[in-house]
Amino acid sequence: MRDVAVIGVGINKWGELWEHSLRDIYVDAALKAIDDAGVDHIDSMYVGCMSSGLFVAQEHLSSLLSDYMGMSGIPTTRVESACASGGLAIRSAFLEVASGMSEIVLAGGVEKMNDVDGGGATYALATAADQEYEAYNGVTFPGLYALIARAHMEKYGTTREQMAHVAVKNHANGALNPEAQFPMKITLDTVLNSVAVADPLRLMDCSPVTDGAAAVIVCSLEMAKKLGKNAPVRIAGSGMGTDTIALHSRSDMTFLNSTAVAAEKAYAMAGGVGPRDIDVTEVHDCFTIAEICVTEALGYFEKGQGGPAAASGATARDGQFPINTSGGLKSKGHPVGATGTAQVVEIVKQLRGEAGDRQIKGAKRGLTQNMGGTGGSSVVHILEAD
Amino acid sequence: MTVGIIGYGAYIPLHRIKVEEIAKVWGADAPSYKRGLMLEEKSVPAPDQDVITMSVEAARKALKRAKIDPKEIGNIYIGSESHPYAVKPSGTVVAEAIGATPEIHCADFEFACKAGSESMFVSYGLVKAGLVKYGLGIGADTSQGAPGDALEYSASAGAAAYLFGKENILATVDETCSFMTDTPDFWRREYQFYPRHGGRFTGEPAYFKHVLGASNLLLEKSGLKPSDFRWAVFHQPNGKFPMRAGKKLGFKEEQMKQGWLVPKLGNTYSGASPLGLTAILDVAKPGDKIFMCSYGSGAGSDGFVFTVQDKILEVQDAATKTWDQLNKAKYLEYGAYAKFRGKINKLEEV
Amino acid sequence: MTTARYWRETPQRFRLEAGRCKKCGKVFFPPRLICDACKHREFETVKLQDEGEILSYTVIHTPPSNFSDEAPYAIGVVRLGGEVNILTQIVDCDFDELKVGGKVRVEFRLIQEDGKSGVLQYGYKCVPA
To answer: What is the ipTM of this complex?
Structure first.
């Protein structure tokens, strides 16, 4: 397999983008990535999108988006893995370049969620769960993560306060991110007293509904050099794992096995690195408890220690493991198909030294963890710079 | 040959609403309603409960007592005036849920409050005729009373299920009768949500004429006197009517008390006398004779004479008893009750 | 929701029918075509027990569109007969009665309606035992 570099990134300001359709949002971010890369063509494209069919009654994104990119004719593949669609798009692009099949590939993620109402969005998101044995009985995504939270609290003594610290920390980071949907600080009290969504999760434990897109351009290291990119960021490791679709099928509801499997593969591919070698991380905090569980599955903290670690500041920008400098899904927003791609955009910026006030000094190696449903699938990437 | 009840089960939903709570909303005088109707409160089905769900639970309890293979049940009849579908029998869903399909005869019955005793009557008949090995007859309702109408105080929900057979009999069916005329005392037209009734016309010319008519016929056919019976149960649209009818026939309050569920349960329509009978069977002793007379508006009554057998002592505790279910209650305010019963006008779905 | 997709799951939703792997004995609900433990492909039909205990629970305040009138309602992961987990609503109980380890039993209830004119969709819920 060839070495793969990331030579361009693009992201738009996320939020309720009433004036912009799905195709507008995608093309905007993709063109930003193309401009950032300075390429005059791309060989192929991957689009991550969870549910354009349910949100905007549109499928066949391969045709639609290559058309609206002005590139009809190029091979384009839409990939879907619920909320891990964006990360999967990047993995697919990585594999196409690493295998030697293509030289320059664009991986974009997009979701347009606000054209349906709250109940409609909840319904669409619930298709990431087991339709017949979870969603049929009336559970929602907040509900499923609430079940994980309750189990985690019961098993390890994790508290609502510890979970709330995750939201506070992510907003503190997001306040410094001009593209974030909610770039403002919040207090612990605000989180703890926000309106109930699914016990024990409150509104501020949950990532929002968002319209947005992000894109990256990957190419072979050789091509990057030809294009005059000195020391570009490289994708050093890529891993993917799956787990049972239904939360209740797992022997331990508190452990995200798909993330552990994906991370193991990515660590190995990146040369046998481990948590201590990672300078900056973006994880899938769809709910505060998710970030806690992910840190345990990545091996950053022992099982059951993710809560105390979050409360202690270990995951703040000045902590041992800075996590979600972008603001995470909570503050930055969560257009589900775009999230995984945006995580890589943030890490690339960090590794290039372009993260502004959010910059982790001297960051040389970063990790992104993206996951679908209640962890039915996970994609982990490790990126490096010189 | 002898045919009788081989299994029985009752299901009463958890929620209740008191007469005072309803009266408060409509500016009515609660004490006079309580006195006049001899009624304190009634059961309320939750939005996820209907005739089908309650029938399944009642039938499962009957199976617990009968201990037979559901695949050998030859018929399922459910009598109700609140079947969830106008076209598609409640019985198919219930039969599927208890594992009785596919070799089973099914029909939904309707005759206002008498539909439950009808399913029992016909199930018993099929077993007696040798057409089926076991027959399942259920009476269940979640009927509605129009807001502010007298019937709103009493229209409630519940289900009773009976299995009939020839072996391991809990109570033999010794005599039956049926007495029916065309009497328009209470009805509901197709596509109407609430029923209507003839006020005081529902009393003497309707309820009493048919209950007394059927009961006297039954006593005559069986050659028995009220004092030959240990227990008696009548259709109970309110607390007053069954007591008055029973006493007129010569029964004593003490014989009727056990099956007189209505003051706490309300009127479960097709479930009414069948549920009263389950409460009696829960405590009956071998040798006891039971007198049952149902009533359905429109109008008619079915009568049964049962004699309790030894086997009953083995099964009374096999499933939750009726008074135990009745005594387990969670009270609602009128708003929650109106929401549960779909009485609140929401935006029409388009 | 199509009527066929609802009807197909009836044996599971109405009668808790599961599949037991003939080789290693693992029980699957719903039944599968291949055992994930031993990869065997033959199963026998078994019924799950209707009593169990709560492994985790939550109360949903923001329902999806097809459950909009029901909020708030409780959902739990329940282990039936010590063998198989299901996800189910927990009804007829006060929310403060819910606890991990709580004993429940299965009842047949209406789960969803396909609008005012569509098929009524039944299934399992749990009530406190």
So the answer is: 0.95
